[in-house]
Amino acid sequence: MSESMNQQILLKRYPTVAPQESDFALVETAIPEPGDGEVLNRTIYLSLDPYMRGRMSDRASYATPAELGKVMMGSTVSQVVKSKHPQFSEGEFVVGYDGWQAYGIAKGASLRKLDPKQVPISYALGITGMPGMTAYFSLLDIGKPKAGETVVVSAASGAVGSVVGQIAKIKGCRAVGVVGSDEKCDYVVHELGFDACINRKTQDLNSALKAACPNGIDVYVDHTAGPILEAVLQQINLGARIPLVGLISQYNAEKLPTGPNLMPLLVKRALIKGFLVGDYQERHAEFIHDVSQWLQAGKLKYKEDIVKGLETAPNAFIGLLQGQNFGKLIVQVGDDPTQR
Ligand code: NAP
Ligand code: FER
Question: What is the pTM of this model?
Answer without folding.
Answer: 0.93
